[in-house]
Protein: aldehyde dehydrogenase (NAD(+))
Organism: Aquamicrobium terrae
Amino acid sequence: MSIAKETGELLSKLGVSGSALSGGDLVVRSPVTGEEIARVGQVSGADVGKAIDAAHAAFLKWRLVPAPRRGELVRLLGEELRAHKEELGRLVSIEVGKIPSEGLGEVQEMIDICDFAVGLSRQLYGLTIATERSGHRMMETWHPLGVVGVISAFNFPVAVWSWNAALALVCGDSVVWKPSEKTPLTALACEAIFARAVKRFGDDAPEGLLKVLIGGADAGEALVDHAKVPLVSATGSTRMGRAVGPRLAGRFARAILELGGNNAGIVCPSADLDMALRAIAFGAMGTAGQRCTTLRRLFVHESVYDQIVPRLKKAYESVSVGNPLEGKALVGPLIDKSAFDNMQKALEAAKAAGGSVTGGARVETDHAGAYYVRPAIVEMPSQTGPVLEETFAPILYVMKYADFDDALAQHNAVGAGLSSSIFTRDLQEAERFLSAEGSDCGIANVNIGTSGAEIGGAFGGEKETGGGRESGSDAWKAYMRRATNTINYSKALPLAQGVSFDID
Ligand code: NAD
């Protein structure tokens, strides 16, 4: 069966009508073969305004529904996702080129965040605070915030929406989602899955609780600029974050910015090398290097360099690259030609800076429009040139170090620090890495790679954005507004000493 036909069948099972998949002006291609799989319609500027108005009207009603009842809707969403995990996971693989376990893993993350948010719907706690006034009580209350805008990147086409939406919904907010223009089909599928949950939930879920805007950066900009959207959670490149951040700040709206990751690991003399090798290979080559948490820089102590780097190179030379839908390959395609061109440019720049490149060439297939590459490992004399930037492709730059402090300083010496890891059995090195003077990233791990975060912890937090946060822990607070309430149950109104008003 052709991929286009399979896509149509999957979407039909997921509840998306065939008429939504043809006749539009946005051509959707599968990176697996490069073939066209749909043509969907895009929103206009006026559509964005209408969608936000509808979501705002929904918010005004939804905020009055008790939070545990709101949690029930998210519980049903989790059930629908469980029931459609296979189809949605397969669609992710087709639209993004992830291998089957990664496509399914992404849907599992959606299920996990729904479970988390259901519990959270009974735990949106405020504090009761000791007051300095007698006969008073002081407390804080958390209220729903409003319409939450979600802008997502192509490489996690469904999980990122759910990390935001599950929290926003239990917090009493409505959601307007602008997915990547490269992945509109999985977004339409999520919209249909959500509609099923709403149908089962009943009438107290207002119309307009979720709106999906299919379109490019201009639709994202319209969402960012809209006065009725008090929070935008935007996931994507640092370039996008630099455009979105100031616009939101300009109208005092909140921003959760989850951006690029030029992530690094340190391999110390005492490391369990077998464990480190497996974690490095998975973290650097998984999803063809197209994860925000992909391992991109590696600092290896000179005493173990020759034991680890030749073995890594072997793994790079032997890893199976190919069609992710056939279930044998570990590395699937790049998303498109421009990703391939960027990778080649970075490798050329690395060579010019004295790097020695293993791998990186295009892997030929029967499909001229698909871009498969052998992952590249580049031994660099120092951290210069392309090593300082995130290239969204499977390139791992390896550098030798002699002094731990120097490795730590190099580790922290790039802009986009999202995730980090250290491989060591030395307690002092491990603890220093996690300490205030250690890794400056939002995620810092010991003896586990940079990728594969769990939803229970707050995710992300590039140092440049001051730590945008979504998903677990107390990330929910960004989706609500806090009020401090003081209640006077005394018979007097205490004023500042010496102040009195004549009110008769
Ligand atoms: P991208 O920045 O090209 O696009 C991301 C989204 O932003 C898309 O929906 C796009 O339409 C929108 N957009 C682009 N310019 C915009 C603007 N000016 N205003 C409003 N919206 C705009 O990113 P991509 O290529 O889709 O994804 C890859 C990037 O995303 C990588 O840098 C990766 O590290 C990052 N990423 C980060 C995380 C995280 O949680 N930190 C997760 C996934 C991906």
